[in-house]
């Protein structure tokens, strides 16, 4: 088994104000899916896009919205979001503090 | 897309003092893996067992230990745990408050 603090993983900047950490992935031996943690700064957003894989999201902290082509929902601590494969989406921080969420995706 | 509060999902009691919620699963259309959230009461523990599937865990709150046959580690908020397929393990709450963690597994 492998145990570590997620903040010890170096982040990559996916977009302005959007940091992504792969906290459990191929380096840990994950065979099927990987866990990432995102930090989104106030006013910043992940890109509006779609892809073949789903997202399973748990919001750790902050206030934001998640948008699809047809829909928009407020999100906050303790909320979960399922984005189906090929569904367009983005996550935007609408609050004053960081928006932090876990996002699990299949291993490509 | 589906958005809800994880606490709105009714829990099942897996063991004394151990509540499990499937917060994203087949009901939401998850095709490959499912997200669960566990609440473990002080002094309580998930069973020491193994199975073919891996665990990808994120600790939300509390203090505990995760044990395997060879190893034992303290866990707390912001720590992640990878349990490989077929590795024996259990999670025990050693603190005074609830131990809460996310645990993602493949869909069987």
In short:
With 108 residues, chain A is mainly β. Helix content of chain A is 0%, strand content 53%. Strand 8 (79-83) of chain A pairs antiparallel with strand 1 (2-5) of chain B, so a sheet runs across the interface.
Helices and strands, with pairings:
Two copies of one chain form a homodimer.
Chain A (H helix, E strand, L loop, with lengths): L1 E4 L6 E4 L2 E7 L8 E8 L14 E7 L1 E5 L4 E5 L2 E5 L6 E4 L5 E8 L2
Antiparallel strand pairs in A: 2-3, 3-4, 4-10, 5-8, 5-10, 6-7, 6-9
Task: Give a description of the structure.
The structure is a homodimer of 108-residue chains. The first copy, chain A, is mainly beta and 108 residues long. The first copy, chain A, has one domain: Jelly Rolls (Sandwich), CATH 2.60.120. The first copy, chain A, is 0% helix and 53% strand. Chain A contains no helices and 10 strands. In chain A, the strands form 2 sheets. Chain A has a 6-stranded antiparallel β-sheet, with no helix packed on it. A 3-stranded antiparallel β-sheet of chain A has the order 7-6-9, with no helix packed on it. In chain A, strand 2 (12-15) and strand 3 form a beta hairpin. Chain A is globular and about 40 Å long. The A-B interface holds A 1-7, 23-24, 28-35, 37, 54, 56, 58, 60, 66, 68, 71, 73, 75, 78-85, 87, 89, 102, 104, 106 and B 1-7, 23-24, 28-35, 37, 54, 56, 58, 60, 66, 68, 71, 73, 75, 78-85, 87, 89, 102, 104, 106.
């Amino acid at each position: 088994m492998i145990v570590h603090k997620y903040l010890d993983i170096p982040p990559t900047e996916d977009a302005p104000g959007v940091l992504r950490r792969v906290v459990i992935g191929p380096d840990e031996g994950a065979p099927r899916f990987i866990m990432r943690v995102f930090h989104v700064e106030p006013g910043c957003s992940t890109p509006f896009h779609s892809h073949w894989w789903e997202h399973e999201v748990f919001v750790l902290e902050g206030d934001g919205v998640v948008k699809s082509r047809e829909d928009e929902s407020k999100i906050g601590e303790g909320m979960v979001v399922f984005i189906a494969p090929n569904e367009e989406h983005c996550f935007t921080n609408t609050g004053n503090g960081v928006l932090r969420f876990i996002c699990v995706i299949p291993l490509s």
